[in-house]
Write a structure and sequence with these properties.
The structure is a single chain. The protein folds into two domains: 3-148 and 202-243, Vaccinia Virus protein VP39 (Rossmann fold), CATH 3.40.50; 152-198, Single Sheet (N-terminal domain of TfIIb), CATH 2.20.25. The chain is globular. 32% of the residues lie in helices and 34% in strands. The chain has 247 residues and is of the alpha/beta class. InterPro entries: Methyltransf_25 (IPR041698), SAM-dependent_MTases_sf (IPR029063). One of its GO terms (biological process) is methylation. It comes from Caldithrix abyssi DSM 13497.
């Protein structure tokens, strides 16, 4: 694979067992706070059909199961879906967020922990939002939890090094044009593996435009998992939207 191909397909290479190991330190309190924010602002019953798009190992989907019996998780990675299946009973489907393998069926779609902006073509990122719109029922809710570009630019840590289970993990972060990239190197017993994360740095106005173009009406914009209003240096950029009827 060419260097450009490696970069553009980073998500196919990265989201496996190594990803789970590197992110094992994630704060579960953050996940719980985010789910509380969701259920506080969205009417969810045991019958509500929810799609967690790019669900990963099911960290958020498993918490949503406390509120609904119909939580579906979708991810491209078989490794992450396998881990999600081990974590709790979910309806799991392998698929690409650009072409969801569903007909219109959901009352709620969530995209959490910056599971958006993966693609180098803005048109493909817009296509993702259009797919979420397509699979939502009339009046359905789309909840997007994304990074705040200005916060990332100000607080970006250039390099961190840590050891996990005898493996040296080196993470190098940088801003490249309109994207934030993180190179991950995993070293163990003389063997070295390299991975990449790359996410488009959409700002508030760019994301508003994309959501509108995809057919969503924005109801609220939060700046953190406690539900505070969004400000320039909020740590997150979180949208609560509803599906607009197509003209």
């Amino acid at each position: 694979m060419s260097i450009s191909g490696f970069k553009e397909n980073w998500f196919k290479n990265w989201f496996g067992e190594e990803y789970i190991e590197v992110y094992a330190h994630r704060d579960e309190q953050d996940a719980q706070d985010l789910i509380r924010l969701i259920v506080k602002n969205i009417h969810i019953t045991k019958q509500t059909k929810i799609l967690d798009a790019a669900c990963g190992p099911g960290r958020h989907a498993c918490l949503l199961k406390n509120w609904s019996d119909f939580v579906f998780g979708l991810d491209l990675s078989m490794s992450l879906l396998k881990r999600a299946r081990q974590n709790c009973p979910l309806e799991l489907v392998r698929g690409d967020i650009r072409a969801l393998p569903f007909k219109t069926r959901f009352e709620v779609v969530v995209s959490l922990f910056t599971s958006f902006g993966y693609f180098f073509d803005d048109g493909e990122n817009l296509q993702v939002l259009k797919e979420y719109h397509r699979v939502l029922k009339k009046g359905g809710v789309f909840f997007l939890d994304f990074l705040n570009a200005s916060y990332v630019q100000k607080h970006l840590k250039g390099e961190t090094v840590r050891t996990i289970n005898g493996k040296k993990i080196v993470e190098t972060r940088r801003i490249v044009g309109k994207r934030v990239e993180k190179a991950i190197t995993i070293e163990q017993k003389g063997r070295q593996r390299e991975f990449l994360e790359s996410v488009r740095l959409y700002n508030l106005f760019e994301l508003k435009a994309l959501l509108n173009a995809a057919g969503f009406k924005i109801q609220k914009v939060f700046g953190d998992y406690q539900g505070r209003p969004f400000e320039a240096q909020s740590p997150r950029l979180i949208f609560l939207t509803v599906k607009k009827a197509r003209q």
